[in-house]
Structures are given as structure tokens and as C-alpha cells.
Amino acid sequence: MTRIVLQDVTMIYPFEKVSGLFDRKQKKLILEQQKNMPYTSNEGVIALQHFSSVINDGEFAVILGPSGSGKSTLLRIIAGLERPTLGKVYFDDEEYNNVKPEDRDVAMVFQNYSLYPNQSVYENISFPLQVKHTPREEIDAEVKKICELLGLSRKLESLPQDLSGGEKQRVAIARSLIKKPSVLLLDEPFSNLDVIMRRNLRTQLKKLHQAYHTTFVYVTHDQYDALSLAEKIIILKDGIKQMDDRAAEVFLHPVNRFCAEFVSSPIMNIFEDVEVKKDSFSLFGKQYQLTPSRKKHLGKEKKVTVGIRGSNIHAGKEGIEAVVDYTEVIEADLIIHAKIDDQRFVIAEKYKEDKETRYLQGQKIYVTFDEDCFHLFDENGDRI
Ligand code: ADP
Ligand code: MG
After folding, report:
1. Which of 28, 69, 73 has most ligand 1 atoms within 8 Å of its beta carbon, as the pocket-test mutant?
2. Structural domain of residue 110, as residue ranges?
3. N or C: which end of the chain has fewer CB within 10 A?
4. 382 located within any domain
5. From CA 280, how far away is CA 283, in angstroms rounded?
């Protein structure tokens, strides 16, 4: 178990060069991403800027952000595969900038399962212990324990080629964790898997984390992964940290429009250029009061961007008149796409069998907004 401290870490990669071991396809993607990077210096692209954070001992931290936002770079810096251009990395108060990857007691799981094709599941998983000459009985016990947690007990004799994608990835995770590293790094481990498989694997990963008390750092672009797994979510955009907080906080109090829209289930509706008059803003003809602190933040600004999640808008017998466009079912929600005049928005209701037929295209409905659930953003997209 280890507490990781990153202090003002900046990573600059030289232009049009790829450092590290990647195959041709990955290299091409990295070079493509470099071109889209908004921040550059004379030396190259700035993949990570003044990044600071503390990942506590035994914590499950998730790094969330779109492609090219610097997630893998951050993970590679923690692993020691990349040395930051500026800034410091500490493991338990000891500076680690110059500590080699093999001396870090860190294991890493990648998107592509890297199993030994000619070895059985048992051999693959036990390999790190075999190398250490661990006694046979101990190896058997450890493999048994982890395979039960991961639902692999019946696959011990199988070869990788006979496993599904999800099973292969579970074997890769088991092999990384069996040597009990103090930190487990996972770089988009489920991104090649289907939705149901991902859901099962999330549950198993949670169980593993509870059983091993290892510090987990998990990289993903998937908000569902982040919300369901994380004790702490770190949101990155263009190499800059946007938010660093508990999952609930990220969901309930996004610090800016980017975070609000990125963690967007149920969908966050955004209304731009909403007029502010005196102490209130008006949305679809109705006035909503601004708190004194919001008013102060706004200063002379006369417009705000208003965000509200679909689950905080309700269709009923009273309220503002709207027209239904269409409906869809997503997970347990019935999503009603509607409009008021030309403004489109969505309502998310809990799905019930008989409800769907209640909303037909062109039908009039009446909507109300949960007043205390408005997210307001200024012209820079920052929370008001
Ligand atoms: P993410 O994992 O969020 O998709 P990355 O950390 O891989 O983002 O990339 C962040 C930026 O750094 C991108 O612009 C990418 O092109 C660049 N980059 C990442 N890895 C390398 C590397 N090994 N060599 C050169 N540039 C890189
Ligand atoms: Mg990546």
C-alpha cells in the first residue's frame, strides 16, 4: 500500500516523436493526438500541466478524461515509464522521480491483454510467484483466492485462446495483483469489452480492491466506470486538472461546464445565453431567484449558462407547456426528448412498462424544474 503524491507535474513530449514502446498503430494515434493538443511550448506538446494531487494509501482513484487529455501520461509517470519534465513524484513521502519502474512495486494492466499464449490460466496467473520461487502450496492458495474473487476458478486449465475478452482481461488483472504490488495501475482495461461484461467486471474489481487493500489508479474515458468505481475522481482536459474530488461531489457539484457535461448521466441539459435581470434569471418565461453569492460572482454579467440534469425536470399536469418529440429507454430511465419553442431538452424518468405509451410525438406535456438543481456557469464555463 502506498500514498502517491504528485506535485506540480508537467510533461512535455518533443514534437512528432513518440517515446516508449508502442506498436505502429498506437504510434500513429499518439502523433495524431499531438496535432490536436492546444498547449505547446518551444520544446513540444504539453501533455500534462502543473498537475498536483494526492492519491491516498489503499484508495481507488479514477482518472477520467477524453482521448488525448493526458491520462496515460499520468499513469506512465506514476509507473516510472516516463520521467516528468518538471515537478515531483513521491511514494510515501520519498521522492521517486529517479526510481526505475522495476523498483517501484507497481503493477500495470493495459487495454490489450498481454497473456502468454501457450500457458494455461493457472500458469499465467502464477507466473510472477513462480519467478519469486514461492512455495507451491502458497502459490496454489493465492491463485485459488484471486480466481474465486474473479470468477475464474473453472478456467484454470484453459489456454488464453479459449477465453472470452472479459476472461482474458480478468486473467491479466489476476496476474498483476497476485504479487501484491502496493499500487495497481489500470489503463482503460475494459474498453475492448461490451457493456454487460464491463458491468460484471466493475463489480469484481471492487471486490478485489476490498480484498487486497492496494492503491488502485484506474484510467478511463467512461463516466460510468468512474462513477461506479471511484472513491476519488480526477478529471483531466487537455492535460489540465479540472476536478479532484469524491464521485458524489463530481456528480452533484461539477466545477465547470466541461465536468458537468462529461459526467452526464442522466443527461445534463444546457441552456445558453440565459438572461439575468436584477436578482433572478428567466428560463422559459419563469423567474428563478439567484443566491447572493451567485449574484456577486456574476458582477456585471447579464447572461448565464444554465445546466440541469434530465432527472431534475418533471413532466406533469402543471408547469410550462412543452411538446414531446420522441422517447428512448436508456438503462432504467425513460428519456423524453421534448422542446419548448425551439429549445430542445430531455427529461429522465424512471422507466415503467406502462409509461412509455403516455408520451407520443407532438403530444403536449407540462414541465417543472427542480429549482435547487440548477447549475449555473459564467461565460468561461466556470461554476457560479
Ligand atoms: P490519453 O491517455 O488521455 O488519451 P495521453 O496521455 O496518451 O492521453 O496523451 C496526451 C498527449 O501526449 C497527446 O497529445 C499525445 O499525443 C501525447 N503523448 C502521449 N504519449 C506520448 C509519447 N509516448 N510520446 C510522445 N507524445 C505522447
Ligand atoms: Mg490513454
Report:
1. 73
2. 4-256
3. N
4. no
5. 10
